[in-house]
Amino acid sequence: MTAIAICLLMIITGPIIDFFLCLCLLGLLHLAIWLGKR
Question: Strand locations in the chain, DSSP E?
């Protein structure tokens, strides 16, 4: 039962975590460009 719950949790949270990681990377990239331009 717990294994199924963990699998479902991973399927649901996986794309959300990926989305936040993407946002963080884009934010860092934007910051690096912004700092580079100054």
Answer: none
